[in-house]
């Protein structure tokens, strides 16, 4: 196994890596910096787009461009012009909230959770925006929504609230986009030196989670048991996604500065985008948003 710094742009809160099979490019974001980044699998051709607000997550669209979850709601992003267009703000009545982590399901729906920026207030909601741009509430009562992803067959949806220290599993209905039967998948724990952050599922159905502030990547078996742990060179790792030509590189984002002063600092590699190779595991392609 080999861990390398792929791109060092010192993202304040790097998040949401998305490998696009069609373009053979990696996208990731800086949440508070309000930026979208793109590069090749080996870290070349870095491109940046400035957002008008904070950004929690993004997904590419089938018809070009992207959908971005900004602090001010769901927007379309035109990569050619750099312009954003508001779709809807589902929490316009909650000034302390913003949209956070999100992923697209196999039918092209974008599932995104929100969070209270003051951290600690369980006022976040899990939303689904469909290709027809209708928005639906799936669940609520979260402090920091994080880590949405699916089992390879799409029948199980994984999700976490960072402040709970748990990752949950739901039954997922691919036909309707509905969720049911929430249960604890695994208890990762919550302290000021470790908790759950972004997740992805590999081709074998194992879930990988970034343990932020602990500097660890944990791989969990489908039954929730811990399969392996990878120690990263920085503590504040935030999210993971498989990609590269053979879908066997694990891309890992990190933060250069914690959101609150009580969280620990880090070394000179903080905020870098990392590539972990030689894991002997492949990931699954990320679907594009259908709208």
Q: Give the strand tally.
A: 24
Helix-strand pattern: EEEEEEEEEEEEEEEEEEEEEEEE
Q: Treating each run of at least 4 consecutive H or I residues as one helix, how many helices?
A: 0
Largest sheet: 4 strands, antiparallel
Count of separate structural domains = 1
Low-confidence stretches: none
Task: Let me know the average pLDDT.
Answer: 94
What is the fold-level CATH name, i.e. the topology?
Answer: Neuraminidase
Short description:
The protein has 291 residues and is mainly beta.
Overview of the structural elements:
The protein is mainly β. Helices cover 0% and strands 52% of the residues. It is built from no helices and 24 strands. The strands form 6 sheets. Strands 1-24-23-22 form a 4-stranded antiparallel β-sheet, with no helix packed on it. Strand 2 (14-20) and strand 3 form a beta hairpin. The radius of gyration is 17 Å and the shape is globular. The mean pLDDT is 94.
Topology overview:
Layout lengths: L1 E6 L6 E7 L4 E6 L4 E5 L7 E4 L4 E6 L5 E5 L2 E5 L6 E5 L8 E8 L5 E7 L7 E6 L5 E8 L2 E6 L5 E6 L4 E8 L4 E10 L7 E7 L5 E6 L3 E5 L5 E6 L5 E7 L5 E6 L18 E5 L14
Antiparallel strand pairs: 1-24, 2-3, 3-4, 4-5, 6-7, 7-8, 8-9, 10-11, 11-12, 12-13, 14-15, 15-16, 16-17, 18-19, 19-20, 20-21, 22-23, 23-24
């Amino acid at each position: 196994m080999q861990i390398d710094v792929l791109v060092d742009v010192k993202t304040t809160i790097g998040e949401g890596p998305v490998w696009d099979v069609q373009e053979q490019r990696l996208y990731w974001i800086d949440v508070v910096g309000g930026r979208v980044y793109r590069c090749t699998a080996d870290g070349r051709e870095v491109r940046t787009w400035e957002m008008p607000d904070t950004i929690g997550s993004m997904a590419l669209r089938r018809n070009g461009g992207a959908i971005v979850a900004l602090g001010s709601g769901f927007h379309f992003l035109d990569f050619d012009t750099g312009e954003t267009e508001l779709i809807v703000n589902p929490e316009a009545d909650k000034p302390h909230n913003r949209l956070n982590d999100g992923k697209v399901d196999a039918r092209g729906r974008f599932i995104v959770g929100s969070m209270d920026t003051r951290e600690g207030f369980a006022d976040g909601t899990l939303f689904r925006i469909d290709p027809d741009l209708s928005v639906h509430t799936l669940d609520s009562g979260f402090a920091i929504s994080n880590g949405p992803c699916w089992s390879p067959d799409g029948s199980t949806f994984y999700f976490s609230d960072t402040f709970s220290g748990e990752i949950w599993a739901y039954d997922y209905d691919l036909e309707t986009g509905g969720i049911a039967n929430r249960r604890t998948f695994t208890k990762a724990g919550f302290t000021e030196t470790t908790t759950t952050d972004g997740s992805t599922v590999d081709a074998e159905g194992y879930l990988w989670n970034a343990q932020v502030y602990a500097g660890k990547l944990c791989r969990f078996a489908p039954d929730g048991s811990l399969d392996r742990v990878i120690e990263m060179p920085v503590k504040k790792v935030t999210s993971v996604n498989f990609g590269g030509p053979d879908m066997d590189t694990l891309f890992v984002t990190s933060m250069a500065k914690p959101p609150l002063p009580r969280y620990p600092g880090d070394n000179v590699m903080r905020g870098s985008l990392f590539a972990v190779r030689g894991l002997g595991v492949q990931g699954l392609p990320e679907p594009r948003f259908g709208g």
